[in-house]
Amino acid sequence: MLYAAHVGVSKRLSEWVKVPWGVGLGLVSPGLPLTLNLGPDNAPTCPAVLIWDDAREGKDSKDKLVLEFTFTKPVLAVRMRHDKIVIVLRNRIYVYSFPDNPRKLFEFDTRDNPKGLCDLCPSLEKQLLVFPGHKCGSLQLVDLASTKPGTSSAPFTINAHQSDVACVSLNQPGTVVASASQKGTLIRLFDTQSKEKLVELRRGTDPATLYCINFSHDSSFLCASSDKGTVHIFALKDTRLNRRSALARVGKVGPMIGQYVDSQWSLASFTVPAESACICAFGRNTSKNVNSVIAICVDGTFHKYVFTPDGNCNREAFDVYLDICDDDDF
């Protein structure tokens, strides 16, 4: 786990990643010199969110502490954008104005959400929030810009899966939402405006726990990591680049086999230690035809792979960030 003590790692990550941190982890606010932590490193559950101003003068971390949100129940996740912070509890989500003079804007009751699933669109044009809906397998979307504080609006719901949602992510403009269920074999993408399913991507045939789904900056690609130790990369802008089953050339088949045959498989993939959970995200493009994906594992390893539209995927960088310094140095 990349604990708050290793804040240098999260600073480096902030350049690339919309980070789905969990309990006890740090996060750097995009575009702001603010570092967030969900509490002590050794706390199994934490009912507080602490925010430091890294630009503020002072030798002690207490001198840089600028905000604290305290709750009676554990905080499971936090999402931030330039003007709002979203704090996720197991059955409730709070939205506050941010960073100046924070005040509570919204409060949403949710289905039991032990993973703290939630995503927040960073776009200046769209303030979309998504989290598991009350119905099993559904997603609830809220436009924070059009919802008035203190009022309730009709839920905008997408029936995405038959079993509980296990992972969810918005693209940068907030026009597409991707989700996977607890089964973990399929990733489905929906238009956030029309609620129509756009495409269905197959991670594999065996059940798996998905840790992370992320879009590339321009929504041309999507990456996903799971407990199988594989990071999959899918093409979205040109889905013809994705692999298809060899049976697709056979022709008409039965309905059950047909669902498998019609699936789109990943354009490229690479492996990380299967025993180490990881998050993944796209790096900055170095050229038109070369893209990169970064994966950070809980064992402290950093993996960077580059891939091309024809499916070639090679490791460009590897590092280990555990024990980079003594905890007392922070």
UniProtKB/TrEMBL annotation:
Subunit composition and interactions: Interacts with WIPI1. Interacts with WIPI2. Interacts with ATG2A and ATG2B. Interacts with ULK1. May interact with the PRKAA1, PRKAA2, PRKAB1 and PRKAG1 subunits of the AMPK kinase. May interact with NUDC.
Transmembrane segments: none
Principal localisation: other
A Pfam family assignment: PROPPIN
Keyword list, A-Z: Autophagy, Lipid-binding, Repeat, WD repeat
Protein name per UniProt: WD repeat domain phosphoinositide-interacting protein 4
InterPro entries in the record: PROPPIN, WD40/YVTN_repeat-like_dom_sf, WD40_repeat_dom_sf, WD40_rpt
Cell location: Preautophagosomal structure
UniProt xrefs under PANTHER family: WD-REPEAT PROTEIN INTERACTING WITH PHOSPHOINOSIDES WIPI -RELATED
Gene this chain is encoded by: LOC121103086
GO cellular component term of the entry, any: phagophore assembly site
Function: Component of the autophagy machinery that controls the major intracellular degradation process by which cytoplasmic materials are packaged into autophagosomes and delivered to lysosomes for degradation. Binds phosphatidylinositol 3-phosphate (PtdIns3P). Activated by the STK11/AMPK signaling pathway upon starvation, WDR45 is involved in autophagosome assembly downstream of WIPI2, regulating the size of forming autophagosomes.
Family affiliation: Belongs to the WD repeat PROPPIN family.
GO process annotations (BP): autophagy
Sample GO molecular function, one term: lipid binding
Keyword Transport among record annotations: no
